[in-house]
Amino acid sequence: MQTIGSDRFQDIRDAVRALCADFPAEYHRKVDEARGYPEDFVDALTKAGWMAALIPEAYGGSGLGLTEASVIMEEINRAGGNSGACHGQMYNMNTLVRHGSEEQRKKYLPRIAAGELRLQSMGVTEPTTGTDTTRIKTTAVKKGDRYVVNGQKVWISRVQHSDLMILLARTTPLAEVKKKSEGLSIFIVDIKEAMAGGMAVRPILNMVNHETNELFFDNLEIPAENLIGEEGQGFKYILTGLNAERTLIAAECIGDGYWFIDKVTAYAKERVVFGRPIGQNQGVQFPIAEAFIEVEAANLMRFEACRLYDAHQPCGTQANMAKYLAAKASWEAANACLQFHGGFGFACEYDVERKFRETRLYQVAPISTNLILSHVAEHVLGLPRSF
Ligand SMILES: Cc1cc2nc3c(=O)[nH]c(=O)nc-3n(C[C@H](O)[C@H](O)[C@H](O)COP(=O)(O)OP(=O)(O)OC[C@H]3O[C@@H](n4cnc5c(N)ncnc54)[C@H](O)[C@@H]3O)c2cc1C
After folding, report:
1. In the annotation, is 245 catalytic?
2. What is the rounded CA–CA span in Å between residue 227 and residue 234?
3. CB 152 within 8 A of CB 202
4. Partner of 201 at 20 to 30 A CA spacing, among 37, 106, 154, 311?
5. 234 in contact with ligand 1, CB cutoff 6 A
């Protein structure tokens, strides 16, 4: 199937597809059934260098852009896998590369590139403040050469399969800053050290097989040298990660969308009811065609968001819009795929129900569709602020 961008990045697409072929749908299905983590798959991606795509060559990575990283994520999802197991390292990377000190880059990047460390976690969301990020209550108070962290996070993914986490905390009380986005800072946290010294992790069993957790900080001490960039400017830095996350997840949804369309198209051609293939009915054809059109349109916005991101230009709106369009399109493709598989769509062995659950997440996380609409209404269209 000829799709937007399918004639570009052929080397990357072929190589990732070849790797994914060793981990067929059955592998991902079994991991899902066991609520496990695709350790072998993530190891294979790491050994092949894909998890170091965004690390500059000088630190042992391949120095690729977000565009190429997004193609890697897209291909994993298109092959029936779920990048959610490992996309954290991709979206966190530029927070460290662009805002970390040379010392921090030298300390972490070569070891991440070599596969000795994983940077898979980002701790932003909190239970009592949700999407209202600037009101987070987790604090980091400087005491000598350390910051002491207290508070709580929720939905923090891959903590149990990562060595490092980027943590957002308030370093200046909200009442003492001019703008609510000021006074927030980000830190690189050594997860094992933190678990031994004041961070408790409680897993959250959820609808998708997605390792995610509640975190509790009780006087966790972080060395002051683990502060990324300038104290109080963390909100600006974390946006580098959040914009990458939205764009990469758009690409993953696009991969899902093509997977659903491939799957349902093949099924609709072969499933015969009333003496003809179900795909001969326009009632079946149209929702599939509509989903395909929407995935293709979302893909254009994804490449635009990637282009701006890689050019270090403002890309928040495009990243949000790409994620909005792609999550909506993949969800429509998922619905058509499930519907036209009839009862078989519910059978685990067809993988449709698993991918259906996986792609549904992206209407809510990492940012809900409502908050994207609100961003566009206020920041692009200039409508009055609602909050
Ligand atoms: C599986 C999973 C993994 C995750 N991984 C991570 C992670 O690794 N790190 C991390 O920091 N976070 C993570 N998250 C959190 C995720 O980013 C949040 O769930 C998401 O941003 C929504 O925040 P919330 O759940 O607090 O919803 P809330 O902010 O409570 O909002 C609930 C709903 O209300 C609506 N809403 C809220 N405010 C408004 C408004 N002003 N206008 C209109 N509608 C509104 C929206 O529809 C929204 O969906 C994860 C979540 C899940 C489910």
Report:
1. yes
2. 9
3. no
4. 106
5. no
Contact 174, 183 (CB under 8 A): yes
Query: Given this model, what pLDDT does residue 307 score?
Result: 98
Structural domains present in the chain? 10-113 (1.10.540.10), 121-233 (2.40.110.10), 236-380 (1.20.140.10)
Q: For the stretch 244-268, what's the b/e string if a residue is b when 16 or more beta carbons lie within 10 angstroms of its beta carbon? A: bbbbbbbbbbbbbbbbbbebbbebb
Atom of ligand 1 lying closest to residue 131 CA: 29
CA neighbor of 241 nearest in space, from 319, 154, 330:
319
| Per-residue pLDDT, 230 | 98
ω into 56 cis (within 30 of 0) = no
Report d(CA 108, CA 318) in Å as an integer.
30
Instruction: Report, in angstroms and rounded to the nearest whole number, the Rg of the chain calculated over CA atoms.
Output: 21
Q: Token pair of 378, please? A: 């206020």
**Would the pLDDT of 6 be above 90?**
no
Beta bridge partners of 201: 215
Nearest CA to ligand 1 atom 3: 155
pLDDT digits (tens, 9 = 90+) for 68-89: 999 999 999 999 999 999 999 9
Cβ atoms of 218 and 198 closer than 8 Å: yes
pLDDT at 1: 81
Phi, psi of 250, deg, nearest 5: -60, -45
